[in-house]
Design goal:
Blueprint (H helix, E strand, L loop, with lengths): L2 H16 L4 E5 L2 E4 H16 L7 E5 L4 H12 L3 E5 L5 H11 L4 E2 L22 E7 L7 E6 H12 L10 E4 L7 H10 L4 E4 L6 H11 L4 E4 L1 H7 L13 E4 L6 H10 L4 E6 L9 E4 L8 E2 L2 E2 L3 E2 L3 E6 L12 E7 L5 E2 L3 H7 E4 L2 E12 L5 E6 L3 E4 L2 E4 H11 L6 E7 L5 E8 L6 H10 L8 E5 L12 H5 L3
Parallel strand pairs: 1-9, 3-4, 3-5, 8-9, 8-10, 10-11, 11-12, 26-27
Antiparallel strand pairs: 1-2, 6-7, 7-19, 12-13, 13-16, 14-15, 17-18, 18-21, 20-21, 21-22, 23-24, 25-26
Helix pairs in contact: 1-5, 2-3, 7-8, 11-12
């Protein structure tokens, strides 16, 4: 038995057999049992087997319904991989992805009739075979496909359980992420392999409002959320009942420590973890467990990303590739069986993103970090979000830190470097608030930072735009400059 079968297919098989009467999903107000889930998997496997073209990779149209989730497992049980295709994407993007991968078979909420149970066994496949390909935005405008193998995802599951987090059939697990984003995979996999129920947020809903209602009304016990979502919920923390939550993961973007302190006061029975990881390292590769009794590690008001997961090796390097010394900052790079086999048919990107060192294959995360004396990794920002102003290297995270301090952490801020009309680099500061005078803010920043770090433009946005991954969409903000 290989790793994928051991960590994913076998646990699910046992759940489908022994816990068929339990609820597997709560979708748009309806509960579905594991028996219903098993029947949909079996029906869809029959459809896959009857396809004219026996393709290894299938397209999967994403909907918030039982058939979409069942399709994922049906494809895996048939030894195949999937490529998520979101119906809201432009047709050109979908066609580009289909053309790159060469897939013509598409599962689109297949509603085939159930005839026979096909969940007891699966088609033999290698751990080296693909599980899915996630396409992310490319700097050239062409989406780039991150290949995740069965070994990648199985190794992640092994790493996840070694953090000490536990899920039982009694748990109610939140799934708020778009299925094009890899944290969604964690959200449903850890629940379904343990017999818990997955509670999803329907497309078209205001996510943080719907998630809040699920947490309170359905007594959610476990969930992963982006800090952006908790930021929108923060004004309601005093009237928000999160007492049912046993475990909460914050992920997808840098997490402010003041937000977590406020969340601690609201979610008083909850263990909180900060998980970090690029898609290329399969969902998460480091984690930090916050504590209520001691001061939590932070840098510029951002929580530490902690230590590597059990199956991940991490190093921090200088620009010349040498390892950093002491608390010197450098680029975080990760290796291990969670790291992707590479980008789909993209030799140039693979050559620039991966490298060999001491017999291990590492991925350049592009994140600026350093080792704390305790062995935890401190996150300082993106290397590509550094800027050179008048010859000085500037970390935008430091500007954001002081701006947040000025606003007593009541407003989110975002610093962005841009080229002015004379092709010189300047800094713009976006503030999520109603427009106001900036004289006092500028005066405060000048008292904390050298002149070349002071933003030349300050813009106010009532609400920061979010992308599909629940992160602040910097590209939309940058278009306003």
């Amino acid at each position: 038995m290989n790793l994928f079968e051991y960590h994913i297919l076998l646990p699910l098989k046992n759940i489908l057999r022994n816990y068929s009467s339990l609820n597997s999903f709560y979708i748009n107000g309806n509960f579905y049992t594991y028996r219903q889930f098993a029947n949909r998997i079996s029906a869809i496997r029959s459809v896959i087997r009857s396809a004219e073209k026996n393709e290894k990779i299938w397209g999967l149209a994403l909907h918030d319904d039982l058939n979409t989730y069942a399709s994922i497992f049906a494809l895996w049980m048939e030894g195949k991989a999937y490529v998520p295709l979101h119906p809201s994407w432009p047709t050109d993007r979908i066609e580009s992805i289909k053309e790159q991968v060469g897939c013509t078979n598409i599962l689109d909420s297949c509603d085939a009739p159930y005839t026979i149970d096909l969940t007891d066994n699966w088609i033999e496949a290698s751990d080296d075979d693909l599980a899915y390909i996630l396409f992310t935005s490319g700097s050239t405008g062409m989406p780039k496909g991150v290949q995740i193998s069965r070994k990648n995802i199985a190794t992640f599951m092994d790493s996840f359980w070694q953090t000490g987090i536990t899920i039982t059939p009694d748990d109610h697990c939140l799934q708020v992420f778009d299925l094009t984003f890899d944290v969604s995979v964690q959200s449903y996999l850890v629940a379904l392999t343990q017999g818990a129920c997955v509670y999803t947020v329907p497309y078209g809903q205001v996510k943080y409002i719907y998630a809040a209602s699920l947490i309170q009304e359905q007594k959610i016990t476990f969930g992963a959320m982006a800090p952006s979502m908790l930021t929108y919920l923060r004004p309601y923390f005093n009237e928000f009942d999160a007492s049912s939550m046993k475990t909460c993961i914050v992920t997808a973007e840098a997490c402010p420590i003041d937000l977590m302190e406020a969340w601690f006061n609201c979610a008083q029975n909850t263990e909180i973890y900060d998980f970090y990881g690029p898609t290329e390292a399969t969902i998460y590769c480091t984690y930090y467990k916050l504590t209520r009794s001691e001061k939590n590690l932070s840098l510029n008001g951002i929580i530490s990303i902690g230590k590597p997961l059990s199956n991940v090796q991490a190093i921090i390097i200088r620009e010349d590739g040498a390892l950093v010394e002491g608390q010197e900052k450098g680029e975080l790079c990760v290796a291990g069986d969670q790291v992707t086999i590479g980008y789909w048919k993209n030799d140039d990107k693979n050559a620039s993103s991966f490298f060999e060192k001491d017999g291990k294959r590492y991925y350049h995360t592009g994140d600026l970090c350093y080792w704390d004396r305790s062995g935890n990794i401190m996150y300082s920002g993106r290397i590509d979000q550094q800027a050179k102003i008048q010859g000085f290297r500037v970390e935008l995270g430091e500007i954001e830190y002081h701006a947040r301090k000025f606003y007593n952490n009541e407003h989110r801020v975002l610093a962005i470097a841009y080229q002015n009309t004379h092709n010189l680099t300047e800094i713009a500061l976006f503030v999520e608030a109603e427009k106001e005078k900036t004289t006092d803010l500028i005066y405060y920043l000048r008292s904390k930072m050298p002149h070349y770090m002071i933003p030349t433009r300050i813009l106010f946005e009532k609400h920061f735009p979010l992308n599909k991954s629940e992160k602040v969409d910097r590209n939309i903000l940058k278009q306003k400059l």
